[in-house]
Amino acid sequence: MVPRGPGAPIELADGERLTDVRVLIWKHAVITGHVVDEAGEPVVGASVRIFRRSSVAGRPGISEVATATTDDRGIYRAASLEPASYLVAVPSISTSIPVPMMDEYARASGAVRVEMQQALFRAAPTLAGPVGGSHLRIDDQLLQVEGRMVAPPAPGGDGRVSVYPSVFYPNAGHAGGAETITLASGETRAGVNLQLRLSAAYRIDGRLEGPEGPVGIAALHLLPAAPALSGSAASTPIGTTVADASGAFHFLGIPPGQYVLRVMKTPAQAVQPAQMTVVQTPAGAASRGIGGGPVAPSPRPTWWAAQPVVVADRDLRDLRVPMQSGYRISGSIVFEGTPPPVPVQRLSPLLESADPWLLSEIPELVVAADGTFVSPEVPPGRYRLSVPTPNGWFVKHIKIGGTGGRDLSDLPVDLNADLPDLVVTISDHGARVSGTVRAASARADTAAAVMLFPSDSRQWVDFSVYPPAIREVRTDRAGAYAAGDLPAGEYFILAVPQTAVDWSRPGLLESFGRVATRLTLGEGESRAIDLRTTQVK
């Protein structure tokens, strides 16, 4: 067992009593330190974020796991941490909201209010109302700097705003330059101190322009030009704002740096209630919506932009941002085999982006009663189409026209034009592997995990949330295991101690692939393979 790992099932025979069950627990670890300003004075009320190093679809990434606030001495204490590797930071996000839009939103109703609500929430999900001391009004803009104090510094005599840029321990401006803090169970790591240094900040004024005129009521994000890690936490913006109805936008409080201005305006979508089914993920079983999801995608376009921006020593004025429409994928889902266990329209396909900034922006796809589906428009990039399936079924392949050509279920596809006529074939003729795992002593290993994954190393990264060909199965009390619903193909297989399977560790499948056994499975084939537990370093 490992912290946050899947639980170990307990099998009981009729009338059996177990009296020697051991439940392992881990003592929480602690990170603590001071936050001071450029004069060495304590910073009160700073929000210190703790990020855990993790693996995001096989690539190094980070995820936020805790927040601590400094007290009147500038001291923070982040407790309840699991044994793992962490980064510590005081991030800074400058959010600018037009005051007239806030007033218009309060009066709006119907579709206009929904459109404004979507833009405001995407730009400022934690923004409070204009009353209170957490905002600074500059002209007709409200500025809030999230991350390290209640209110941003007041403008100087020239009207320019100064901010404290993000800082990662010990003294880096981004996650790629941060020092990793590795904690053991119960360890307290003191002296993780951070110093904030006031920096001149600038404004960016511009307009969103579409092919036929301005594009308004859209959220804008200013992100670091080249994030070194994956995951949504690694794509935290430096600044956010909202364009008004004329397409005009204003970023305030932006420190010097190289950025990418990202915009994605999607038509608002309603959501229907979903039912749930159990599917398999790399970390075990997981629930997934099936039957429900969003309504059919709007025929209106999705407008997007990704424009490099360099902020040096002056404001940027009259920045023109050309907006473009996106692309769609479309096709149909067909069942192969016995009658399907659920109506096809109850499936919820996912269009997954390799860009973490887009992970929460793309809704589930809607399947019609005849099995057809059409995605909303999305920006160009690398995507995967995945379909969570009921138990006993698997995605056999995803191909253009249904036959021939590359199987798009294996690797992400570069989407740079509409991708029509996809056929997703779901079959109940999956392959199966079963056997017994024995330890070095030749006894049945009841605490082993059997790993089964493609031998093609390209599939070890950027895989789907629900990869059909990556499995982890646990042995039972007799040391037996079984993995079914597998697509045909070339695999690696090995048995390891359950404690060795840590999906948050980058390079996990690479380390397993060095010692695994190669296995070829045909469609519907059933193989019996006994394994020995391997210790992987």
Share of residues in helices: under 10%
CATH names the topology of the largest domain as: Immunoglobulin-like
CATH architecture of the largest domain: Sandwich
What is the count of distinct domains?
4
Q: Care to count the β-strands?
A: 42
- The CATH class of the largest domain is Mainly Beta
- Give the biggest beta sheet: 8 strands, mixed
Shape: globular
How far apart the termini lie comes to 17 Å
- Calculate the mean pLDDT score and round it: 85
Extract low-pLDDT stretches: 129-133, 270-294
Strand percentage: 35-45%
H/I helix tally: 3
Compact summary:
By secondary structure, the chain is mainly beta. It has four domains: 29-91 and 165-199, Immunoglobulin-like (Sandwich), CATH 2.60.40; 93-146 and 201-266 and 302-324, Immunoglobulin-like; 272-278 and 326-427, Immunoglobulin-like (Sandwich); 431-532, Immunoglobulin-like, CATH 2.60.40.
Word description of this protein:
The chain is mostly beta strands and 537 residues long. It folds into 4 domains: 29-91 and 165-199, Carboxypeptidase-like, regulatory domain (Immunoglobulin-like); 93-146 and 201-266 and 302-324, Immunoglobulin-like, CATH 2.60.40.10; 272-278 and 326-427, Immunoglobulins (Immunoglobulin-like, Sandwich); 431-532, Immunoglobulin-like (Sandwich). Helix content is 5%, strand content 42%. It contains 3 helices and 42 strands. The protein has an 8-stranded mixed sheet with strand order 7-8-6-18-17-20-25-27. Strands 2, 3, 5, 10 and 11 form a 5-stranded antiparallel sheet that branches. Strands 1, 4, 12 and 13 form a 4-stranded mixed sheet that branches. The radius of gyration is 26 Å and the shape is globular. The two termini are 17 Å apart. The model is unreliable at 129-133 and 270-294 (pLDDT under 50).
